[in-house]
Amino acid sequence: MTLSASTFPKPIIQPIRLHVLTDFDVSLHVKRDDLIHGAVSGNKLFKLHYYLQRLQQEKKQTLITFGGAFSNHLHATAYIGKHLGINTVGIVRAEPHELTHLTPTLQDCRDWGMRLEPVSRSEYKLKQQSACVCDIAQKYPDPLWVPEGGSGVLGVRGAQLILKDVDQSQYDVIVLACGTGTTLAGVINASEPHIHVVGIPVLKGARWMQAEVEQYLNPGRDNWQLALDYHFSGYAKWNEELLGFIKHVKHEANLTLDKVYTAKALYGLVDMVKRSVIKKGSRVLFIHTGGLQGARA
Description:
By secondary structure, the chain is α/β, with parallel strands linked by helices. The chain has 2 domains: 13-39 and 161-295, Rossmann fold; 61-142, Rossmann fold, CATH 3.40.50. Helix content is 34%, strand content 17%. It contains 11 helices and 10 strands. The chain has helices at residues 19-22, 44-57, 72-84, 104-111, 121-126, 131-137, 153-159, 182-190, 208-214, 240-253, 262-274; strands spanning 13-16, 27-32, 62-67, 87-93, 115-119, 144-145, 173-178, 196-201, 224-226, 283-288. The strands form 2 sheets. The protein has a 6-stranded mixed beta sheet with strand order 1-2-10-7-8-9, with helices on both faces. Strands 5-4-3-6 form a 4-stranded parallel beta sheet, sandwiched between helices. β4, α4 (104-111) and β5 form a beta-alpha-beta unit. The model has no long low-confidence stretch (mean pLDDT 93).
């Protein structure tokens, strides 16, 4: 794939056979957005698409965004910045001493030219309202600010492109993992009326996501739901059951999942089939949103 702000590959959709689903006559296809690009996989390029357009239209030279030590968003942004010749700054949720030994994710970001600016967790929550973040911004005149995870109106518009060129007549249900709700909102907006979209938050206590998603939806969009019970105790948390599920899916279907996002979502999909929340005979499309780089030790 040649990275740019305006081109996307044709969707890669693969049939996946899991015996537990065949018992319920449920067919499963996976949209392999994890295969889009080695560094910019999953939903990241989609959500950044219109932000990159704006940056180019406004002739800005610097992009500032937010993320944690294993952020797929920072990783993708840094690579795109290097590829397109954009200065990138990552405001990282970390104390300064935590950046003396970088995670593989942040090491890649630094190697690709991203300036890493640590802020405390309390300041990070305030984002651009933080005095510390404002002080950092003074070092980078006239930047384009991109919300954490590529969220916001432009991120939702970009996420709508995930279903571009997908023949939705072949499916009844679409399932995907959720962190901020941005990708979910985009997929709902782009879905056809007969499709039921299921978002599976990977955070504990994510009822807030209902309102977060609704604010971005086109009028009349009610063909969706959140499944809140598959967070495995919270963001970036897991147990032996989930790790066993990841190994089982890899062995049976040769599909690699990450334990933060996609494993929880596919586990939820299977459980919803078992409990008849997803009906017998359904044709399901699972969107693999990437995130595999963050699993590196």
